[in-house]
Write a structure and sequence with these properties.
Elements (H helix, E strand, L loop, with lengths): L4 E10 L9 H11 L9 H8 L7 E14 L2 E11 L3 H18 L4 E3 L3 H15 L16
Parallel strand pairs: 1-4
Antiparallel strand pairs: 1-2, 2-3
């Protein structure tokens, strides 16, 4: 069973370092996005610094780590970890797809595992792939699967 798991975790940051670095259109979009969830007295600069990295429209992925269990004589002998990181998000995503394709080639029934991946990591990865003009591989088309 554990040999069917690909454990994942992503690290995200804002697209640009500060609210002031956004174009006026993007500043307006940011203010609309957070208007209902932030207290009225919160400055856009503060809300951007705190939350932009966790919203796929305003953030980007800088690291995706993966792990698989390794076996020796039918017993778990270790955990192999591989990370793809960098400032070029498309390259990070392509590296992740390469890792997943290898896993998919060995086991078409593999499943993703990790903390909060259903609510954050997987949707974020999918959104960022679409934003980067990438096609979603079959194993990331999870819209009709039960949790």
């Amino acid at each position: 069973m554990l040999n069917e798991l690909l454990v994942i975790d992503i690290e995200t940051v804002p697209q640009v370092p500060a609210f002031a670095d956004l174009s006026s259109n993007w500043q307006e979009l940011w203010q609309e996005k957070v208007a209902k969830t932030m207290p009225d007295d919160t400055l856009p600069e503060d809300s951007y610094r705190k939350r932009a990295g966790i919203l796929a429209e305003f953030g980007k992925i800088i690291c995706i780590s993966t792990a698989v269990f390794s076996y020796n004589d039918m017993k778990i002998s270790g955990l192999r970890v591989k990370s793809v990181s960098g400032d070029n998000e498309r390259a990070v995503l392509e590296g992740f797809v390469t890792i997943c394709n290898k896993m998919y080639g060995r086991n078409r029934n593999f499943q993703f595992a990790g903390h909060n991946i259903r609510e954050f990591d997987i949707p974020y990865i999918c959104r960022r792939m679409i934003i980067n003009g990438m096609l979603l591989p079959e194993y990331l088309q999870l819209n009709d699967r039960k949790p």
